[in-house]
């Protein structure tokens, strides 16, 4: 009869630890967001540098004309005098993300301009990246290590320089996608869940759409799988974690081949 009484304090302590971790994560997200607003305080809400301003122009065109016109847009003001086919030369993840955020906010009667959404996209996703770092590190080492890793990522200068407000470049959303993809891969390895494997493939596809750094993922994960096979650590969970990524990669290559073919035979 003493077992239930001994279990109750452990359950309460576990529940209290989860609530405390939630509030700490919330504070880390607020820190990650607010620490990147110094450029807005100093220079007002503006887009900084050349590539972020080009991405802002592309997002503005997307919100005004829709996805189809954006995909087929030939911008004669970029790479002058040659021009640039936007749909075939950009990573659309950033612009589609900001455009979707803008539409959601306007549907909720929050009338923010496209420029304002673009300025604050990077700080918002820096908070998401910190939370994704917590999930990844917790899956590997534990909740305490996860909170430490999240706090460090929120304040690391090298990441702040690529995600400050107004720095509207691909890394604004891609760092989050990179970390979240690795988290879902580790989660699938630990659970063997096809649900997490599917989410992992979707997260990887989002990473491919956002930044050329997706090669880090598609190089490291096959190396890990090969090492597991060589060392005799192969398991069905490893197959479940890796197979959906391979299918996404094959379909991506087929999509690229088809897109190049259509561009060559257009008209």
Automatic annotation (TrEMBL):
E.C. no: 2.4.99.18
Ranges in coiled-coil conformation: none
Cofactor: Mn(2+); Mg(2+)
Keyword check for Glycosyltransferase: yes
Chief place where the protein resides: membrane
Reactions the enzyme catalyzes: a di-trans,poly-cis-dolichyl diphosphooligosaccharide + L-asparaginyl-[protein] = N(4)-(oligosaccharide-(1->4)-N-acetyl-beta-D-glucosaminyl-(1->4)-N-acetyl-beta-D-glucosaminyl)-L-asparaginyl-[protein] + a di-trans,poly-cis-dolichyl diphosphate + H(+)
Protein name: dolichyl-diphosphooligosaccharide--protein glycotransferase
Organism the protein comes from: Handroanthus impetiginosus
């Amino acid at each position: 009869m003493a077992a239930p009484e001994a279990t109750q304090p452990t359950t309460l302590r576990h529940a209290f630890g989860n609530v405390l971790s939630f509030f700490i994560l919330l504070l880390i997200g607020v820190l990650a967001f607010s620490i990147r607003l110094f450029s807005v305080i100093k220079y007002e809400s503006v887009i900084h540098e050349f590539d972020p301003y080009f991405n802002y122009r592309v997002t503005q065109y997307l919100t005004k004309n829709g996805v189809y016109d954006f995909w087929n847009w030939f911008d004669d003001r970029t790479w002058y005098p040659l021009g640039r086919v936007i749909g075939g030369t950009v990573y659309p993840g950033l612009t589609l993300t900001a455009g979707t955020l803008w539409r959601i906010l306007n549907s909720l009667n929050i009338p923010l301009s496209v420029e304002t959404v673009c300025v604050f996209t990077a700080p918002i996703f820096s908070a998401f990246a910190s939370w994704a770092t917590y999930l990844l590190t917790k899956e590997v080492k534990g909740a305490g290590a996860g909170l430490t890793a999240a706090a460090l990522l929120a304040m690391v200068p090298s990441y702040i320089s690529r995600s400050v407000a107004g720095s509207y470049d691909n890394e604004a959303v891609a760092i989050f996608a990179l970390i979240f993809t690795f988290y879902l891969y580790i989660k699938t390895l630990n659970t063997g869940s096809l649900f997490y494997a599917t989410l992992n493939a979707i997260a990887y596809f989002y990473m491919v759409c956002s930044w050329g750094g997706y090669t880090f993922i598609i190089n490291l994960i096959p190396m890990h799988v090969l090492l597991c096979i060589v060392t005799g650590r192969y398991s069905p969970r490893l197959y479940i974690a890796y197979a959906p990524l391979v299918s996404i990669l094959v379909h991506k290559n087929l999509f690229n081949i088809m897109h190049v073919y259509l561009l060559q035979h257009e008209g």
